[in-house]
Design brief:
Elements: H1 10-45, H2 52-86, H3 101-106, H4 114-126, H5 129-135
Bound molecules: zinc ion (ZN).
């Protein structure tokens, strides 16, 4: 509880996270606009198709899958920015120890230290599918960029 993130330059990570937040919002918005255009173009070319309604559903699903990743990351970035405000940024939610600076540089949205993240991923891999789906709400780190 009383863990401290002193020594972490939160203003630096705040800038990084805010820039990422803005970029993701732009990407999601652009993807939505693009998906709409593709959607209409495809439908226009398939109007004679008796199954155009299910085709439309399929396209919506595909396009949503494209931006789901961005939306997930956006949520992670939001959570990280909230942790900065709360003063818990850079503190592992598992062991309450400070997360290594290098890890935060690589994954500014990380909420676990490497050891706890590895442990979490092992447990997640071992969990039954339904459990995994439920846990997906809380990915431990951003996996979108290496
Ligand atoms: Zn930890």
């Amino acid at each position: 509880m009383a863990a401290s993130n002193q020594g972490i330059d939160t203003s630096h990570f705040k800038r990084v996270l805010q820039a990422r937040h803005a970029a993701l919002r732009t990407a999601v918005h652009a993807a939505l606009v693009r998906s709409d255009e593709e959607h209409y173009a495809q439908i226009a070319g398939q109007v004679h198709d008796a199954e155009d309604e299910s085709l439309a559903d399929l396209l919506v699903d595909v396009n949503l899958a494209d931006i789901t990743r961005e939306i997930h990351e956006l949520r992670d970035v939001d959570a990280a920015l909230r942790r900065i405000v709360m003063g818990t940024y850079g503190i592992c939610v598992g062991c309450k120890e400070a997360i290594a600076r290098a890890r935060l540089e690589a994954y500014p949205t990380a909420k676990r230290c490497l050891a706890c993240q590895n442990e979490e991923e092992r447990r997640r891999a071992a969990a039954p599918r339904s459990e995994r789906v439920r846990r997906r709400r809380n990915p431990g780190r951003s996996t979108c960029r290496a």
